[in-house]
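As noted in the main text, all predictions were made from sequence alone. Below is one such record, for Purine catabolism PurC-like domain-containing protein.
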Amino acid sequence: MSVKLEELMKLPSLREAKVIAGETGLKKLVSSISVLEHTNVAILEDALFDNDEFYGSEIVISAFINIKDDVKAQCNMIERLHKVGEVALILYYVGIFMPKVDDKLIQLANELDFTLIVMPENEMTLRYSEVIYEVVEAIVKQEMRVTHFASELLEQISNLPNNQRNIDTMLKILTDRTRSSIVLTDNSGEIVHAVTWPRINTIQLEEVIELPSHGEIEQYEELYITKRPLMQEGVKMLQLFIMKENEALTEELVLQMTEVVQVFMNLWGEKYSEISTSELVKAILNNESVKMRRLANILGIDVSGIQTMWLIKARNAQANEQALKKNSILFCFSFSSFTCRFSR
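Prediction:
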């Protein structure tokens, strides 16, 4: 469940904070909070932001310590936070580490409708933990009060940028809200998509989906699991597996999760069945092992045999791509002015 940012600003730990940009963003929903500090800006940006990952409707806390005097880097960070779905940045220790908030930063945040919040300046006694505790507590209390979440999640998904409104993002939002793991399989039983809670969960998904299930909620030791069909135009298209550890699944929870996935597929899943090598390469680069294996099987590509990646900057991307396809045994795809090739 989410809480509007304007409501969070009333919390004791945020009452003295000032909104200096992106005031219209106060109506946005917040579902989590995280801390962003780093020592090597280039490495962090490449690892964290260059993978089209969606991090949810988060508030981010930072002091910009390592870029405290670099306004250009600060603006770049704001742009990247906005790109991955963050809704606000809370700046700490302004006047202590970061001398001041530059006007360029404020102007950019306003243009992006990205809320920029500054904690009381020149105040060293501030603690990240106070805001983190109260924000998380407010979100959890909202979840306990409002148990019907399907409509809100669908609204959240509909407001995503086009490049982030995909099935992977939808499943991540849904698993974060329900703290459940989700697996989608095709009619032959092959795993199509999977997102686990937590992300590093070591559940053997291939084994779990083989457990007997007839649409009821089944319990296997500390694991609760059920499967539901996903329909399109009256035909079963996919199987949805929902699993939860150490806490029982309820029929109400399962029905709402199924509703979110089904409505998403009906509204935005029309290109779901289209398969291309570019999607496979993206899965490899993002280390999405389940998706990678599924696409590789469909395309008949032995991913384990890939040993080298080439990035070639082409003056004429279209002509070079055609030449590569004609004269090479490599599979490739183009993006921007670069051609990416994996050799086997």
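The first strand starts at residue 3 and ends at 4. The CA atoms of residues 162 and 201 lie 29 Å apart. These features were considered when defining construct boundaries for the mutagenesis experiments described in Section 2.9.
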